[in-house]
Design brief:
Elements: E1 2-7, H1 24-38, E2 44-48, H2 57-67, E3 74-77, H3 84-90, E4 104-107, E5 112-115, H4 130-142, E6 147-151, H5 161-164, H6 171-181, E7 184-189, E8 196-200, E9 203-207, E10 238-244, E11 247-253, H7 268-284
Parallel strand pairs: 1-2, 2-3, 5-6, 6-7, 7-9
Antiparallel strand pairs: 1-10, 4-5, 8-9, 10-11
Amino acid sequence: MLKLIHLTDTHLTLPGKPLYGLDPEARFNAAIDHIGRHHGDADCMVITGDLTHWGEPEAFQILKHGLGRLPFPVHLAIGNHDDRETFQTAFPDMPGDENGFVQYSVDTDVGRFLILDTVLEGTHGGWYCQNRLDWLRRQLSRADQPVFLFMHHPPFPIHLPRLDRISIAQADAVGDSILSSGKVEHIFFGHVHRPISGAWRGIPFTTLFATGHQVPMEFGETRGVPDEIEFTHEPPAYNVVFIEPGHTVVHTCNYTFSGGGITFGESVDTDHAKRAAGEAATAAG
């Protein structure tokens, strides 16, 4: 079994600079602290893009410093808010493909992780060009084990109109490649700043809240300017994923919650016994 931490959309800025009324550095560090305390036994972590908000070198250094406090490897995907060249300078050991995209494979005990690069410079929309698609097809054809995909943009509509406008443009080509391989077991992505799960073309998928700001759950016609995205201060989260052959379980952790559990001083067995006694008394009466 493999224990994976999935984090997304950290949107780190310059040190001390707030973003949409929040401190992304503080929220990121709180996540790292919480993961270190409670899930130091994880096998690895994947962050699915928008590591920074404007791609500044200083923001990538904040990310690098925080990740250095974790006792397990971290695999990074870039998002539309990241600068590819600056990322590669900050993380020179991070693999890439033959065309300079941040795409690579990671072999694990439960299967092959494929980290995809869905970024087109100068736009927030997702893009998966022919060179990247050819790389994906080669990786899928060569895989002799289950494949788990990690990317920033979703390759399908999620019924949030403002975000569907900036999903991967080549969705059909990506979907045909994934489906025809018959090897992809789960798709993990970021970008949408909401907890969403389901299946696309029969393949399960998962995404989650960002560590910083969130996107409102707004269906149907959008209010205001259609191309503008509103944000909320809903709590951040990370996911804890357990993967074993044929079985993937995803738990969401709202890591800023500091309350304890509620107990009534009774065990579950005692509670059921009292209920059974009450039902018996009602029937007898």
